[in-house]
Inverse folding.
C-alpha cells in the first residue's frame, strides 16, 4: 500500500532517486540519471512562470509517478515529456537515446500538449483527441495527469485568466477521465487543486464546513478507532491499517449541492477506513463492527460482491456509535486500496518479484473498449455527442452464461448486451433470459445479472422499436445500419433502377 501523494519542497534528482531505490534496480536508476541529465541539458536556461529552472517541472511529474511506484519507462518518459515541444531536441534523438517505447509515449504527450480548453464548442474536439491518445497508449494519460497535477500545484504564479482556463479544463476534462479510469487519487487531486480557482467562494465555504466537522468529531473518532482496534485484536483479525479519511473538498461540494447544503445528511465527511489482509477478513470485520454498534438501515454497501461502475471495491457501513453519533466505516484489502487510489495505473506498478510491471496489460478490457469507440468516432465524427455520453455514463458489469464480464452503461438492455457481443447476435436476437428468467428485451440490466441472449437464425434483422430503448452508441448505430440496408434492398426490389442519392 502506498501513501497519499505529498510533494516535498525543492525536489532534486537525488530526492527522486531516493524514492526509486525503494523499488527499482540499479540499472533502472542509471537510466533515470541519464534521462534527467538529458532533459536538464535540453531545458538549460529555461525558467518557469514562478522563476524556477524549467527542469523542476518534469522532475516533479516524475516524482509523483515514483510515489505510485510506477514502471520505470513511464518515469523516463515523464522526465522527457516537455523536451520536443519546448526545446531544440527532437523526438528522433529521444528515440536514439532511450528507445522506441519511451519515444512513443513522449510523442503522445507532445500531441496532447496542443489541446486547450476553449469553452463548450471545443469541448468535444478536446475529448476526441484525448480518447485517441488514450486508446493509442493509456500510459500517456498517466503521465499527463502527473504533469497537470504539478501545473496545478504551481498555478499561483500564472496570470488569472490562465489559472481559470487550466483549472476549468482539469475539472471538466481530466478529472472525469481519471475517475473513469478509477484513479481515485489523481481524480481527487485534480479536483481539489482546481476547485479554488474555478469556484473560490464555494471552496472557502466547503473547506470551513469540513474543518469544523473535523474539529468537532476528531477526538470522538479517535476513541472509536481505539475501540475498533481492540475488538479486532480480540477477535484475531489483523488490522494492517486504520485511519480517518477526510472527504475530498470538491466531492463534498457536489454532495452538498445534492443535499441542499444540509451537512447533517452527509455521514462520510470523515470516515474510518480499515485495511485487512483478505476478503474474508473484510466480512469478518464488518460483522464485528455490527456487533459493537447498530448499523443504519440501508447503509450497508457491499461493493466487493457488487463493485461500483468504475470498479471500486470495499465494504461500507454506517453505524450509530455511543451518544447517537453516526460514523461511516470503509473496509478493504490492500489490493482494493491500490485499485481504488491508482486504478489503471496499478497495472503498471512495479512488481519486485517479477522485476517488471505487475499485470498483463492486455487484460484491461476498457482499453479495448476505448479503441473500439475511437474507431467508430473516426468513422463518424457527428456522433461525438453520443460517444461522450457512453463514456461518462455510469457503468454496470453483467455476465455471459460462461462467466465473461461485460461492461455497459447504466440502464443498458439485453439488446445493448447482444450488440456488444457481436453484430449478428444483436441483429438476430429474439429473446433474453436474465438470471434464468425470460424477460422482455427492453428490461434494464443490473450489475451482477447473468444474461443469456436467445437467437433466431431466421430473423431478418432488428426491430426499429429497439431504437426507443437501447442505450449504447454501438447498438444504436448497428441497428440503424441494418435498417438502412434493409430499406435499400426493399427499394431496389420495388424500383429495380439505380437509386439516386
Ligand atoms: Mn509539462
Amino acid at each position: 500500500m502506498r501513501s497519499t501523494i505529498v510533494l516535498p519542497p525543492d525536489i532534486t534528482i537525488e530526492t527522486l532517486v531516493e524514492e526509486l531505490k525503494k523499488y527499482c534496480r540499479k540499472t533502472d536508476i542509471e537510466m533515470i540519471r541519464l534521462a534527467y541529465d538529458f532533459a536538464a541539458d535540453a531545458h538549460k536556461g529555461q525558467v518557469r512562470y514562478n522563476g524556477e529552472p524549467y527542469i523542476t517541472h518534469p522532475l516533479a511529474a516524475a516524482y509523483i509517478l515514483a510515489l505510485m511506484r510506477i514502471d520505470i519507462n513511464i518515469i523516463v518518459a515523464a522526465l522527457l515529456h516537455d523536451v520536443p515541444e519546448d526545446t531544440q531536441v527532437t523526438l528522433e534523438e529521444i528515440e536514439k537515446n532511450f528507445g522506441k517505447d519511451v519515444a512513443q509515449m513522449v510523442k503522445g504527450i507532445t500531441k496532447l500538449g496542443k489541446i486547450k480548453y476553449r469553452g463548450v464548442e471545443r469541448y468535444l474536439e478536446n475529448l476526441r483527441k484525448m480518447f485517441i491518445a488514450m486508446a493509442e497508449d493509456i500510459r500517456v494519460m498517466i503521465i499527463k495527469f502527473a504533469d497537470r497535477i504539478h501545473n496545478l500545484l504551481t498555478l499561483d504564479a500564472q496570470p488569472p485568466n490562465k489559472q481559470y482556463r487550466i483549472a476549468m479544463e482539469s475539472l471538466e476534462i481530466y478529472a472525469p477521465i481519471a475517475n473513469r479510469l478509477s484513479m481515485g487519487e489523481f481524480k481527487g487531486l485534480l479536483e481539489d487543486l482546481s476547485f479554488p480557482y474555478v469556484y473560490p467562494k464555494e471552496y472557502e465555504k466547503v473547506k470551513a464546513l469540513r474543518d469544523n466537522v473535523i474539529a468537532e468529531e476528531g477526538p470522538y473518532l479517535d476513541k472509536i478507532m481505539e475501540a475498533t482496534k481492540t475488538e479486532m485484536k480480540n477477535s484475531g483479525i489483523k488490522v494492517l491499517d486504520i485511519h480517518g479519511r477526510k472527504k475530498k473538498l470538491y466531492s463534498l461540494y457536489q454532495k452538498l449541492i445534492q443535499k441542499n447544503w444540509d451537512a447533517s445528511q452527509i455521514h462520510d465527511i470523515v470516515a474510518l477506513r480499515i485495511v485487512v489482509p483478505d476478503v474474508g477478513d473484510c466480512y469478518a470485520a464488518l460483522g464485528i463492527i455490527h456487533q459493537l454498534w447498530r448499523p443504519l438501515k440501508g447503509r450497508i454497501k457491499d461493493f466487493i460482491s457488487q463493485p461500483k461502475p468504475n470498479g471500486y471495491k470495499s465494504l461500507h457501513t454506517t453505524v450509530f456509535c455511543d451518544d447517537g453519533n453516526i460514523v461511516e466505516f470503509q473496509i478493504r484489502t490492500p489490493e482494493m486500496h491500490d485499485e481504488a487510489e491508482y486504478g489503471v495505473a496499478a497495472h503498471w506498478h512495479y512488481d519486485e518479484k517479477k522485476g517488471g510491471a505487475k499485470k498483463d496489460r492486455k487484460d484491461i478490457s476498457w482499453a479495448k473498449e476505448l479503441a473500439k469507440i475511437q474507431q467508430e468516432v473516426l468513422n463518424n465524427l457527428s456522433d461525438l455527442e453520443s460517444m461522450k455520453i457512453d463514456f461518462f455514463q455510469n457503468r454496470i458489469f453483467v455476465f455471459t452464461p460462461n462467466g465473461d464480464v461485460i461492461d455497459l452503461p447504466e440502464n443498458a438492455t439485453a439488446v445493448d448486451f447482444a450488440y456488444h457481443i457481436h453484430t449478428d447476435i444483436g441483429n438476430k436476437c429474439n429473446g433474453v433470459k436474465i438470471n434464468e428468467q425470460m424477460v422482455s428485451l427492453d428490461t434494464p440490466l443490473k450489475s451482477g445479472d447473468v444474461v443469456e441472449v436467445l437467437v433466431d437464425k431466421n430473423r431478418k434483422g432488428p426491430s426499429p422499436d429497439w431504437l426507443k430503448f437501447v442505450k449504447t452508441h454501438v447498438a444504436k448505430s448497428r441497428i440503424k445500419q441494418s435498417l438502412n440496408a434493409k430499406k435499400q434492398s426493399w427499394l431496389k426490389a420495388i424500383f429495380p433502377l439505380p437509386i439516386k442519392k
